[in-house]
Amino acid sequence: xxxxxxxxxxxxxxxxxxxxxxxxxxxxxxxxxxxxxxxxxxxxxxxxxxxxxxxxxxxxxxxxxxxxxxxxxxxxxxxxxxxxxxxxxxxxxxxxxxxxxxxxxxxxxxxxxxxxxxxxxxxxxxxxxxxxxxxxxxxxxxxxxxxxxxxxxxxxxxxxxxxxxxxxxxxxxxxxxxxxxxxxxxxxxxxxxxxxxxxxxxxxxxxxxxxxxxxxxxxxxxxxxxxxxxxxxxxxxxxxxxxxxxxxxxx
Length: 251
Fold this sequence. Notes:
By secondary structure, the protein is α+β, with helices and mostly antiparallel strands. It has 2 domains: about 1-95, Alpha-Beta Plaits, CATH 3.30.70; about 110-245, Pseudouridine synthase I, catalytic domain, C-terminal subdomain (Alpha-Beta Plaits, 2-Layer Sandwich), CATH 3.30.70.660. The chain has 5 helices and 10 strands; from the N terminus they run E-H-E-E-H-E-E-E-H-E-E-E-H-H-E. Strands 1, 2, 3, 4, 5, 6, 7, 8, 9 and 10 form a 10-stranded mixed β-sheet that branches. A hairpin with an 8-residue loop joins strand 2 and strand 3. The longest helix has 13 residues, at about 25-40. The two termini are about 35 Å apart. The model has no long low-confidence stretch (mean pLDDT about 95).
């Protein structure tokens, strides 16, 4: 038995999310079908995490156990030849220890939330960023708010599912706002994320940028542990899973 780890990028626009579900049409379904076509064996993959409908990924990671003897260097090209055009294996497949688990072995993940502030939205980016043409967002206030998220906190205020996790405590290693032209990118790196956590952070930051939530109130909002007190859940298509890191260094 072998344990194979691979990295996949996908445009989530046409899918109901990454994880398999009764309604089908997920990224996991497409990958498992490609593996079955290649190996003639039904195989279940394990993803590093769930992404919702219309959420994208540049560096989602999955692993699966197989008895196939296909050479490790052939897996990527072979699966890409069988996958839809909006799902691509990226990088070289790796054979990892049998106890490796894409989700539980992950040390940190990085997400990006993208916002377009131009008056006119680029039609070719409409599926990948939130359009927010007005009012002008206060970037300085948004950065002050982001700084308060760094560290270990209880993120109950920033999740819409209070029953799916044993603990709502997570550690954010870095959170920053990058600006280029009319595009704002919110990057958040942490040891794990709750359901809708990054989208709620993005929605809250937009409210901060609009002056509707004080920039220095994030700490008190975290302590309140009350979803109602923070901003809305931002639209899914502005969110992209950028990277999943398995190294031991999390300083």
